[in-house]
Write a structure and sequence with these properties.
The structure is a single chain. By secondary structure, the protein is an alpha/beta fold. It folds into 2 domains: 233 residues, Aspartate Aminotransferase, domain 2, CATH 3.40.640.10; 116 residues, Aspartate Aminotransferase, domain 1 (Alpha-Beta Complex). The protein is 34% helix and 15% strand. The protein is built from 9 helices and 14 strands. The chain has a 7-stranded mixed sheet with strand order 1-9-8-7-4-2-3, with helices on both faces. The chain has a 3-stranded antiparallel sheet with strand order 12-13-14. Helix 5 crosses helix 6 and helix 6 packs parallel to helix 9. The model has no long low-confidence stretch (mean pLDDT 97).
Length: 386
């Protein structure tokens, strides 16, 4: 097969990484010029800026007034770990895993916390576990959107309102791009560097009144590191949810988070953010439907992510290769796109099946997705011909 000619059009922005993700359209370093650097994060003005992140987060996401929001250490990972260590053990727990990060939480619960009454519901990349098998008398830990598989839960209908356990949701590549049914979620975590394109380090934690009740009524049997402690004397440390962070935050990152939230408000809030992400998914879906060599990794359309859009190469020449050669070919595919400067960091996650992962979150313009797609055709023909 001869290689296809190079397309003439190029994406205006070639940032399609699934984390850290593209900055908002029009972002420059000028957005950080008012950052309160060199100041104590506990001083009045810096603390007000931190509180602005919390308040704007609540407004954009529509978080209920009785839910609490905090900025916590160590990105989404730190936020998830904090809650696993803080609330698990009071009930049996169901762990759902269908990609790398879900598998990581299973490891933490089974091998680190060593909970004996942990039940693992697992599926392969591209599929969800059977959600009807979940026991909501147990606590339930799951990712809303599998960042490394491009598989999301379709909605919150499978979660009962009268559950006895807590739902603990890692929503880091979902929140701001997908509807979150807050009444079905007790603990939600994410990080700034995903859908709003913020800077790294800090995690976000959103907890329901039911989660607060657990924190105040249950003491885990293991030692709690300082950065995980949310209670004192059996009561929630409310200051943490009002801008008194557990440890020092970067005021540069805080300013960047405010900037992303202001942009979200300016373009129309959550509805507009979701529409942008879904438009990116539709552009890729319409293109994939016309091709016979590439498919979504997510098998069912209703489970296909609109942010971490994962694709697998299904052409005979590719699937007939040994596993190591498939990985090599997929790496070459992504490398060609990077060398041409049309797409950065689009190789599939290291633990996922070889293929492509294209970020379609709200900070990515659909016009750039559309400009990228002919380049995928070109790179495929180049790799096949080599």
């Amino acid at each position: 097969m001869s290689a296809s000619p190079k397309p003439s059009a190029r994406p205006a922005r070639n940032h399609f990484s699934s984390g850290p993700c593209a900055k908002r359209p029009g972002w420059t370093l000028e957005a950080l010029k008012d950052a309160l650097v060199g100041r104590s994060h506990r001083a009045k003005l810096p603390k007000a800026r931190i509180k602005a992140v919390i308040d704007k987060t609540r407004a954009v996401l529509g978080v209920p007034a009785d839910y609490k929001i905090a900025i916590v250490p160590a990105s989404d990972t730190g936020a998830v770990e904090m809650m696993l260590w803080s609330v698990l053990g009071a009930r049996p727990v169901d762990m759902l895993a269908w990609e790398s990060f879900g598998e990581g939480w299973v490891t933490d619960v089974v091998k680190q916390l060593k909970l004996k009454d942990a039940r693992v519901l697992k599926s392969d990349y591209g599929k969800l576990p059977n959600l009807a098998d979940v026991n909501f008398d147990h606590d339930v830990v799951f990712t809303w959107n599998g960042t490394t598989s491009g598989v999301r839960v379709p909605n919150g209908d499978w979660i009962p309102a009268d559950r006895k356990g807590l739902t603990i949701c890692d929503a880091t590549s979902a929140v701001f791009a997908m509807e979150m049914p807050w009444d079905k979620l007790d603990i939600v975590t994410y990080s700034w560097q995903k859908v709003l394109g913020g800077e790294a380090q800090h995690g976000m934690l959103i907890i329901s009144p039911r989660a607060v009740e657990r924190l105040e009524s249950y003491t885990p049997p293991w030692p709690m590191p300082k950065i995980f402690r949310l209670t004192k004397g059996g009561k929630l440390e409310n200051g943490i949810f009002e801008g008194d962070t557990i440890n020092t935050v970067s005021m540069l990152c805080v300013e960047d988070a405010v900037d992303g939230l202001v942009w979200a408000e300016r373009i129309g809030g959550l509805k507009a953010l979701i529409a942008r992400s879904e438009a990116n998914l539709k552009a890729i879906s319409d293109w994939v439907a016309k091709k016979n060599w590439i498919q979504f990794l997510a098998e069912k359309p209703e489970t296909r992510s609109c942010t971490s859009i994962c694709l697998k190469i299904t052409a005979d020449w590719f699937t007939s290769l040994p596993a190591d050669k498939q990985a090599e070919a997929a790496k070459k595919f992504a490398g060609l796109l990077e060398k041409e400067g049309v797409a950065l960091d689009v190789a599939s996650y290291r633990d996922a099946p070889p293929g492509l992962r294209i970020w379609g979150g709200a900070t990515v313009d659909t016009a750039d997705i559309e400009a990228l797609l002919p380049w995928l055709e070109w790179a495929h023909s180049e790799v096949q011909a080599s």
